# Entry
Amino acid sequence: MRHWIVALLTVCATSAAAQQMEMDSTPRPQGPPMSASTSLALPMTRDGSGTGWNPDASTMYGWMYHAKHWMYMVHGSVYLRYTAQDAFHEGTHGGAQWDAPNWIMGMAQRRVGEKGLLHVNLMMSADRLTEGGAGYPLLFQTGESWHGKPLIDRQHPHDLFAEASASYAYTINKDQDVFVYVGYPGEPALGPVTFMHRPSAFFDPDAPIGHHWQDATHITFGVATLGYRLDDWKLEVSNFTGREPDENRYNFDKPRMDSYSARLSFAPSERYTFQVSEGYIKSPELLEPDINVWRTTASAQAAFDRLDLSLVWGMNKDEREDPDQSILAEAAYRVRDWAWYTRYEWVQKTGDELQQPPAIYSIQALTLGLNKELFHTGELAWALGGQTTLNLPDQRLRATYGNLPIAGEVFLQVRPRLMRMGHKKVKAAKTPVQPAKSRMDMDMKM
# Structure
């Protein structure tokens, strides 16, 4: 992959230099833009997490404000819930607790001249308060630590500051943009759109158990990304800190800038996005500072009128063992105030990660969930939900976990109201740059 990265960068640079800027005397709008964070020529629904792409036809949950030159938007979700992970199996694994996984994100953007765009993000989470230092119980989850011990069968809490980033994009013409993105913390160009920002996963309170094979770099203390878009394609390269956040969830970790990645994205229509990426991650785990990881991912997302789909593959390779992989498939289907959702995962985890004898263990998990919107208070929607997960562990793990450990949870989700936004892609390479247009169904009906 490292060889085609160099080749693609050369092709893109040559193409950009060969094309003249297509400008005319048509006046440009001076109001706040309603566009993607890295292009005045793309709709705002293209934004996923960091600089990743969702399909243009994706739905968004949030509320928007306009000032003279700025556009502001707020996203987020809080799950007030009770979760029980394998509560019926006698043993030390699993567990049950009341908790409230949560995140809130604010963004702002404005034009800079006729063709520049400034965009800033601030994302925060109070997980450390609502989950505790060891996070929440989640069977077969691994990654990060608490009190100097690795977290196993628990999802770690996110840091208070999950993203504080800024980007500047320059639109060369309708088919070309260049941009730079910096974050402390931020998200490098590695992996799919992070699970909490994928429409297919929006109703599920739990992180995927393949999180650390796919999108775990979404909180990186020090990241710089350079990107170039040519029509439906986007190429990005990042320099970032490989170490995952430490156990202090309130501080800003040391920026090391010792890792790198590249990602190629493709959006052939308003309904589909694809990406492939690879990164070298230096010393990601605090407890294993001498272990470096090569991570490779590929993903596809689709958005239809009421259905959102995601398919994700990720692979980790370090110096000690053979590669271990993960596959995830997600779907969410909405009808009026109801949402049905599911997630299937197949993940390979090592004996070190699960504190088992040396081997690679295969785990499968299937989640089925239901979410019902109850009422609105201002810009907030209140929804009641529940889900169950059937876990199928490797045969060698069944003495520890049982044959078919079951997890379940019920929750009250508090989220912004739905903003229904539709987009039609227009091929018009010879027109002046205009902000991406959108039509909004503000009656908030699903």
In short: The first strand starts at residue 60 and ends at 61. Confidence is low (pLDDT under 50) at residues 1-27, 422-433, 437-446. The CA atoms of residues 172 and 269 lie 21 Å apart. The first helix runs from residue 2 to 18.
